[in-house]
Amino acid sequence: MVNTPEMGNLGDHALSLASRLWLKEHFKGMPVVEIQKTAGFPLLVLLRILTRKGSLVFLSAGGDMGDMIGWPDAERRRRKIITLFRSYSVISLPQSIAYSDTPRGREEQRLSSLAYSRHKRLTVLLRDEKSVKTAKELFPSA
Fold first, then answer.
1. Residue 31 lies in a domain
2. Whose CA is closest to 59, among 29, 88, 9, 94?
3. Judging by beta carbons within 10 Å of its beta carbon (0-12, 13-18, 19+), is residue 57 exposed, middle or buried?
């Protein structure tokens, strides 16, 4: 599970704990490796090298897709992970999507749309209707 929290937001930690429990219940016998949000990119590259191609990569649940959530690097980090693990099945646990209607927000949308559409085994779970509508507009081929 990649992109898990380290900061003091208890809600994010609760999501991470619930995700770990769910993974252990539904993927019995498979090791669960957790990489926190602040882990450097070289650690993610090492993880890719050490894992088998059939491995599943889960991105932690939360509300950090887009540029409006308050964590400006979160969406860029998510794109890097999705791109790095293009030959793996990647499942993004439930997210909310929020992009601003600004030049920066439109550029983030464009870059995310490109990165997500290039990944053929990407599943993004969404947690609200507004995010589902946004995803259908941004990722029509998904």
1. no
2. 94
3. buried
